[in-house]
Amino acid sequence: MRRTLKTLAIAALAIGLTASTANAQVLFWSNQAVPVEETQKMREQVLKAFPGGVDFQPQEPGPFITRIQAETETGTGAIGVVGGLYGDLANFADSWVDLSDVDLSGVAVSPAFLELGKFGTSEQKFLPWMQANYVMAANKQALQYLPEGADVNNLTYDQVIAWAKNLAEQTGSPKFGFPAGPKGLKHRFFQGFLLPAFTGSEVTKFRSAEAEQAWGKFKELWQYTNPASTNYDFMQEPLLTGDVWLAFDHIARLSEAFNQKPDDFVAFPAPSGPKGRAFMPVLAGIAVPKSAPDVAKSKELIKYMMQPETQVATLLATNFFPTTDAALPADLPASARALGPAVQAMTSSPDALPALLPVGLGDKAGQFNQVYIDAFERIVLANQDVRQVLDQQAETLRQLMVTTGAPCWLPDAPSEGPCPVE
């Protein structure tokens, strides 16, 4: 009873705070674009042209969740549109209006992302708003060493290995670089790219024969990898010095190479494996709560946010890329011009396989990452037996899933209870 009263009080306060603007403006409640500079650009450059106006209110994680909880529990509220990361929106999947009837004619949205926005239902629970991602980058000098018949925008893991081999053998030193340093994002490569591309899974098939094959492929690639990779945190630095000619990393950690020497580098999608072109998007979506005061007006704002010019304005405000095929203007920073098309090509490819950031692990996310880091260090750096390592690490992973109770997330099949590790 006390909790209900508290919830009602919070909701009443929330509604009271925005009552003055609720009639005229749509309240856009977001946990993205929180930094002051981004907030200002969202208000002045992205949302200003929306008829009737938008009250854009970015929030830190705590208040963001509390307000949504209060309004969804009482069924009445002032929030018109919610913007958040996939995992945040997934927590309230039943509270969102179906957006299937929002008119997106003339806008091509990534089909893989539209599917994610359904949370496994027939309803469009959110529309993909903006994304960051990881891609491959190469010095243009490396292109002459591409294996015969290989298309840089449609590579397989075998072709990347062959390319790295050509580079090592024909230039006299290994030129593939990987962010295996202490603060490098190596775990995201294994969780979101390599393993799902071979197993179609991030968790359940961790110890499968296909996972064994994936690690075997990476060991093969490691032979042609610059040994200084265990010190690399950001791949833009070794690309700029010329120590590395071919690399994988997060777009934010590649951008300076393209900004400083735009004519020297090319960006392209991550490779595909037997199960598809797996990638790990940092995906933000926009949803409309069932408790919204004017659902029709909220849907108009959703439509507005998906238009090409709004998507480009959002990129300029936040450095997050469009989820649509919006044409990028010529006056963008060099990094955005180069990395944007690579991200678009990857996420809209016919074999696109999104592997999501971990969901539902709470403060155990670091332990989840460590399972993959330990597997890499034991299998690749210490050359331990792949099968033995996977069996041991899978047990650690299984215990972690049981402890947290986290159900499976994509690309793994939905689970009742903790995500199983076969």
Automatic annotation (TrEMBL):
Source lineage: Bacteria, Pseudomonadati, Pseudomonadota, Alphaproteobacteria, Hyphomicrobiales
The keyword Signal appears for this protein: yes
Organism the protein comes from: Devosia insulae DS-56
Assigned GO CC terms: periplasmic space
Record's keyword annotation contains NADP: no
Residue spans crossing the bilayer: none
InterPro entries: Bact_solute-bd_prot1 (IPR050490), SBP (IPR006059)
Sequence similarity: Belongs to the bacterial solute-binding protein 1 family.
Location relative to the cell: Periplasm
Record keywords: Cell membrane, Lipoprotein, Membrane, Palmitate, Periplasm, Signal
Protein name (Swiss-Prot/TrEMBL): ABC transporter substrate-binding protein
Annotated signal peptide: 1-24
